[in-house]
Design brief:
Blueprint (H helix, E strand, L loop, with lengths): L15 E5 L2 E7 H5 L4 E8 L10 E2 L4 E7 L3 E4 L2 E4 L5 E4 L8 E3 L6 E8 L3 E6 L4 E6 L3 E5 L12
Antiparallel strand pairs: 1-2, 2-3, 3-10, 4-11, 5-8, 5-10, 6-7, 6-9, 11-12, 12-13
């Protein structure tokens, strides 16, 4: 791509989504469409009564949430708060950046999530006791209590 083509955040254009009950949304890979390398950006349209992702926090990546439309509810370590269009929130690395976004209203919410791009990311899901390891080549989710000894299977 030699010409910078703009991506319109208010168009009704999507790359895919999730249709699991409780977690329904549509997504546009804004960063990918722009050819970004160091910053990720995804636009989500969150259906009424649905959530984006399970409550989690990141070890390597920082995320920002920008509300473009609707009034989503943010769950964080400080509790819950309703957000409104124009609100921006940063999710720092570590447990203090834990978050879950849900839409308790009757109207869709449109969210832009920006993130730093780490080669390898580890995310923790405290409600379900899972740990996720993500890279370009691998996605692995395990229960925290499923650990093995460092030398397990080596002899």
């Amino acid at each position: 791509m030699t010409v910078m083509e703009p991506v319109n955040l208010f168009a009704d254009e999507w790359d895919g989504g999730r249709d699991r009950p409780g977690w329904k949304w549509r997504r546009l890979d804004v960063g990918g469409r722009l050819g970004a390398e160091l910053l990720g950006a995804s636009l989500y349209e969150l259906a009424p009564g649905e959530k984006t992702f399970p409550y989690h926090w990141h070890h390597a990546e920082e995320e920002w949430l920008l509300v473009l439309a609707g009034r989503p509810t943010l769950r964080s370590p400080e509790g819950e708060q309703e957000l409104r269009p124009g609100d921006a929130v940063a999710f720092r690395r570590g447990p203090e950046g834990a978050h879950l976004v849900r839409n308790d209203t009757a109207e869709p919410a449109r969210l832009l999530i920006l993130s730093s791009e780490a080669e390898v990311e580890v995310a923790e899901y405290p409600d379900s006791g899972k740990v996720g390891v993500f890279s370009k080549h691998r996605r692995l989710l395990v229960r925290e209590d499923a650990g093995v000894d460092y030398f397990d299977g080596e002899d």
